[in-house]
Design brief:
heterodimer; A: 8-stranded mixed β-sheet; 5-stranded mixed β-sheet; elongated
């Protein structure tokens, strides 16, 4: 993967901005063909922002440059003004929150805590005032008519292909008491989605710029950001990108910090006077052994040079009360940099900042390019993979959201599902299994209780099967039937689907699929169909059915054993038979007599007579209990085991509702198992995947006794209160 | 801790041991009742697992299997929880009934102990104990609820501007401890009222409550000390049991069987502690010249 500084397009855009472009009024021409071919961003920001920490206000000025790299004229620009979601209860965000029921208002901001963003002036570079050309629109339907999170700016004339437009925007924001991870608590600030940000222009479709929904994250174009943050000197600041300049004003006690980052699609920053700033280095050649490089290269079918990891500066902004957990944070980030890097390609930026969000700031567990917010507690248990899980996950979003920038409004699974799947793999590699985090009033109980360990995929599947019939995973994020369905489908069911795909294709193929998808779509906005195309191409199989059935539909997947029977094979058969040219009728009585005679002869050891060997007929009926059906080259594998230890493997295409299989053996059946290799993790019922002859066992007895014990204690506790 | 409270504790312990039969009576009822309530769940487990290889793979807390069962039985999950809740209420009434025999036989250890005399006392004190239960239920809900909210409001006010988790963590746990301590006082008060009903063989509930109030007014801290001492005894033994539970979770038929026995020993111990509360407090009441 190319490093950013080596991209020709990057230097081209810097040059264009630096020289002011060609003198074509405010809208200037670039060479469209060159631009399209290069990997340069079509957008750049130069922002100056000042924090008024007393009044909780931001005052900003944004110089925005957008190039029409498409083959069609663009008459307008749509902007996200995300913070207007927190303006009043008429916003789509709060309307959707109110759908959660009467208690939803409890989460509303208190007096003076609402937030908003106003554009006070918008001009072109030549000074043409476009402030009057702004209008709020409702791209997601009339219910959003009072929403002010999407603003359409009609331009004096369309921007033709290859033309460049520059806008000078003045804005001011009232910072909300943290809502949706943005805002303030006391004197700590987490500023995300805080500036006017254009949507993404999609050829043939126009601007993709959705309202801010309760259940949705974001979508933006890659850009180069230069951001000057002016704020009181007491603040320790973390931000997207690299700090390139610090300018102190001794007279005012203010400081201006300048950050720069190329090729990212968002810019967030955090400021808190209590942050402890720690720095460490991730050294690619020290963290990864030569053997690990070789193994990874072999797994992915790449030369070792392509899997080598670069050095990355790790910055941690930590709350003082969590200081003893500093190395725990760095260890988790090292693991994330290492395994994400090995599996999905090197992390391309020079630094990564992890923020331990201040208490009650409500901004933890969120990702932004090159910066993420984790979150821990003062009594974090050593037995639980927290904060490790959050750190690995949020860092991982630099890959699935940051680099491969899918549309989180419309296809949230492409970032959350992919990243939850990747997090599970990295945690399993770096830490193994972990315990369920059980806290009581902030005190970890894991050391006290003998809690079993589990892997992420187990928890994911347990949740996934319960929501499979609620919604397709690919529904628009605000069109899920409930917030629970959104998160369970987009995170857990999507992860279970990817884990199933890995089991189906095999680890090496799946690793290649993921690596290819990441490499092919870095700095791009792929869609679900792009991933399917990569999966088909790399695996050499048509997996379209897999995604149609399990991703784009809300169908339950469940194959199992329906019925098993075993009878001794009859040696004589009722009815009329042709014997030596005559009709002979076999009756029950005749058969009984023959069998008796044969038994006697065998007992007497009659010469030349040998009782035929007993044979058994085993009939196995398999069933598709769920609506989802296999297709393509997939089939249901099953195994029939007999009492003499022999085994028979079979395949069923699984299209119909059921299928019967018959075996004649000289032993009775002892066990039937569907999917003996455990490929179909997404199967909602493992219990019916097998049938066995023997009945009760000690596990069942143990389970039953635990239930009785639980009830005994429940009743005694209730009685103790009277 | 007053010597008398300690003496009452050990005397109570001795009486509870000598009348261990009572503990077993209650344990049998508790066990049979629980098995009865668990029967539908046990039937489901039998139906699901008897023929499935899953039974061999099941872990002690199997997330994947639990998820399956929730999915498969989602329609009956609500009714099943309601059934268990209704069973718990029924068990409360049953406990009110059993308390007659339980307290009756423990407070008056001189009387002959037989199943017949146990149930005779159950019937004898049932209506008094039922009235006391209703008073206790309402009073506990109101008083403890009120104190809990007051403590919560105070804790919230003190931590409204907290900069770190520490004040919230500390105060929320102090809130919990104070709430539990207040609950222990309320429970102790009704324990004494129950003992007084049996001791005086006088079934008037209000009289018993007044008498318990007077007694506790004069002996509050010692009585409370005794109550907390018995509670501490329970906590210590429970901690040992939790530690031992890790040993019994080892695989193997022997360990599973030992685990089953150990679980029932713990249940018996819980009932035994309840008897120690009664006998020790009865001794204390007598020792303080009631």
């Amino acid at each position: 993967m190319k490093r950013l500084a080596l991209m020709p397009g990057f230097w081209l855009i810097i040059l264009l901005i630096g020289t002011g472009g060609l003198p074509l009024s405010s809208q200037e021409m670039a060479e469209p063909e060159d631009v399209v071919k290069s990997e340069m961003p079509s957008l750049s920001y130069e922002i100056e922002v000042e924090l008024d920490d007393q009044e909780k206000m931001l005052y900003g000025r944004e110089k925005l440059t957008w190039i029409n790299i498409y083959q069609e004229p663009v008459p307008d620009i749509y902007f996200h003004l995300y913070w207007n979601a927190f303006r009043n209860e008429k916003s789509v965000f709060f309307k959707e929150m109110l759908m959660g029921g009467v208690f939803a208002r409890r989460d509303f901001p208190d007096e003076g805590e609402w937030g908003w963003i106003d554009i006070t002036e918008i001009k072109t570079a030549d000074g043409t005032d476009l402030t009057g050309a702004m209008e709020f629109v409702a791209p997601d339907g009339p219910e959003g008519r009072h929403d002010m999170t999407v603003m359409k700016l009609t331009l004096p004339r369309p921007i033709v292909p290859g033309e460049l437009v520059r806008l000078d925007i003045k804005f001011k924001n009232k910072i909300p008491r943290t809502v949706a991870r943005s805002g303030y608590y006391r004197d700590s600030f987490f500023m995300a989605q805080w500036y006017p940000k254009p949507g993404v222009f999609e050829p043939g479709r126009g601007w993709n710029c959705h309202a801010y929904h309760l259940n949705s994250e974001f979508y933006a174009d890659f850009a180069d950001y230069t951001v000057n943050i002016r704020l009181p000197e007491k603040y320790v600041v973390g931000a997207t990108g690299k700090e390139i300049e610090v300018h102190k004003e001794t007279a005012t006690g203010m400081v201006t910090r300048t950050f720069f980052q190329a090729m990212v699609h968002d810019f967030a920053w955090a400021a808190d006077p209590r942050f402890i700033k720690l720095e460490r280095w991730f050294k690619g050649d020290e963290e990864v052994t030569a053997e690990e490089y070789e193994q990874t290269a072999a797994l992915l079918g790449l030369p070792v040079s392509e899997v080598k990891l670069p050095d990355v500066k790790m910055i941690l902004l930590l709350e003082p009360e969590h200081k003893r957990q500093a190395e725990r944070h760095f260890k988790a980030l090292r693991a994330a940099l290492k395994y994400y890097g090995l599996l999905y390609g090197p992390y391309p930026y020079e630094k990564v900042t992890m923020v331990d969000p201040p208490f009650r700031s409500g901004s933890g567990g969120m990702e932004y390019p090159t910066l993420f917010a984790a979150g821990t507690s003062v009594l974090a248990s050593d037995d639980v993979l927290s904060p490790e899980g959050v750190i690995v996950h949020e860092f991982g979003h630099n890959y699935w959201y940051g680099l491969v920038a899918s549309n989180e409004f419309e296809e949230a699974w492409l970032d959350e599902g992919f990243n939850t799947y990747s997090t599970g793999k990295v945690l399993a590699k770096a830490y193994g299994s972990g315990e369920l985090p059980i806290y009581f009033r902030g005190i970890p109980l894991n050391g006290l209780l003998n809690l079993p360990e589990y892997y992420d995929y187990e928890l994911d599947r347990a949740v996934a099967i319960n929501v499979a019939e609620l919604d397709p995973i690919t529904a628009y994020s605000w069109k899920f039937s409930s917030p629970l369905s959104y998160s369970a489908n987009v995170y857990m069911r999507a992860t279970t689907l990817l884990n199933t795909l890995e089991l189906f294709l095999g680890e090496p193929t799946m690793a290649k699929v993921m690596r290819t998808y990441q490499s092919k779509f870095r700095y791009k906005h792929p869609k679900t169909r792009d991933f399917i195309a990569v999966a088909n191409e790399v695996s050499g199989r048509d997996l379209t059915w897999f995604f149609n059935e399990l991703l784009m539909a809300s169908r339950n997947f469940d194959y199992g054993v329906w019925d098993v029977s075993c009878t001794e094979k009859a040696r004589y058969h009722l009815g009329v038979h042709d014997v030596d040219g005559r009709k002979e009728e076999m009756t029950q009585e005749k058969i009984r007599e023959i069998l008796k005679r044969e038994d006697k002869a065998a007992e007497a050891g009659q010469a030349g007579f040998e009782l035929p060997k007993k044979e058994y007929v085993t009939k196995v009926v398999l069933r598709r209990f769920g609506e989802a059906a296999m297709n393509g080259d997939a089939s249901v594998e099953f195994r029939v085991r007999f009492e003499d230890g022999s085994e028979e493997y079979g395949l069923w295409d699984g299209r119909d509702r059921w299928a019967r299989f018959e075996y004649v053996r000289d032993a009775r059946v002892s066990q039937v198992m569907v999917d003996p290799r455990g490929i179909w993790l997404i199967d909602s019922n493992f219990t019916n995947n097998s049938w066995q002859k023997s009945r009760i066992n000690r596990n069942m007895a143990g389970l039953m006794s635990r239930i009785v014990f639980f009830l005994q204690n429940l009743f005694l506790t209730a009685a103790a209160l009277i | 801790m007053s010597v008398k409270a300690q003496k009452a504790f050990f005397d109570g312990l001795a009486v509870s041991v000598s009348r261990i039969k009572i503990t077993f009576f209650v344990w049998i009822v508790n066990f049979l009742f629980s098995v009865l309530v668990a029967a539908p769940l046990l039937f489901i487990i039998q139906t699901e697992l008897a023929r499935s290889d899953m039974a061999n793979l099941l872990k002690p807390f199997d997330l994947m299997w639990l998820g399956e069962m929730i999915f498969k039985y989602q329609a009956v999950l609500g009714p099943m929880l309601s059934f268990i809740l209704a069973a718990a209420v029924l068990y409360l009434i049953l406990s009110v009934f059993l308390n007659g025999g339980f307290v009756g036989k423990l407070v008056d250890p001189e009387r002959k102990l037989s199943l017949q005399s146990f149930f005779h006392d159950c019937g004898r004190f049932f209506w008094s104990f039922l009235r006391l239960f209703l008073v206790s239920f309402i009073f506990t809900a109101v008083a403890v609820g009120l104190v809990w909210r007051l403590l919560g409001a105070a804790s919230e006010a003190l931590t409204a501007d907290a900069v770190t988790e520490w004040p919230v963590l500390i105060l929320s746990n102090i809130h919990l401890i104070l709430g539990l301590l207040f609950l222990s006082i309320v429970r102790m008060y009704f324990d004494y009222a129950r003992i007084i009903i049996v001791r005086d063989n006088d079934r008037r509930v209000l009289r018993a409550l007044r008498a318990a109030w007077s007694f506790l007014k004069a002996n509050f801290f010692r009585a409370w000390g005794l109550y907390l001492l018995i509670f501490l005894f329970f906590v210590l033994v429970t901690a040992v049991a939790v530690a031992l539970a890790q040993v019994f979770s080892s695989p193997g038929l022997v360990w599973v069987s030992l685990g089953l026995i150990a679980a029932q020993i713990f249940v018996i111990f819980r009932i035994f502690v309840k008897s120690v509360f009664i006998t020790a407090q009865a001794h204390f009441l007598q020792g303080r010249g009631y």
